[in-house]
Design goal:
Blueprint: H1 3-12, E1 20-23, H2 28-48, E2 60-61, E3 64-65, H3 74-90, E4 95-98
Antiparallel strand pairs: 1-4, 2-3
Helix pairs in contact: 2-3
Length: 103
Amino acid sequence: MFAEHAHPLFEAMGKVGSARGVFSKEQLPGAIAALRRVVDEEKQAATRGDEELPEETNVGDGDEAKEPEELVALGQRAVPLIRLMEWTLKEEGFVLWEAPNDF
């Protein structure tokens, strides 16, 4: 996951985006609950129409128009991490990460 996408997820879970870190098995339930709140809040905001979507524009050189980039919501990025953490919790493990830099 790119740092720009990981940072808000880690922030929601109460973790600093450091280059190295761990979620212990004791921390996993709280982290999972925090991520689920992010997903739920995003769904509620979308239902209310609070979400700002980027304008659809094609950018290209002459005849080569490019398709607009798809917006990937934070909640969508959270789902694989939630699944990983649930599986890890079931196995009574922990989540360890190492990145080249702080994020």
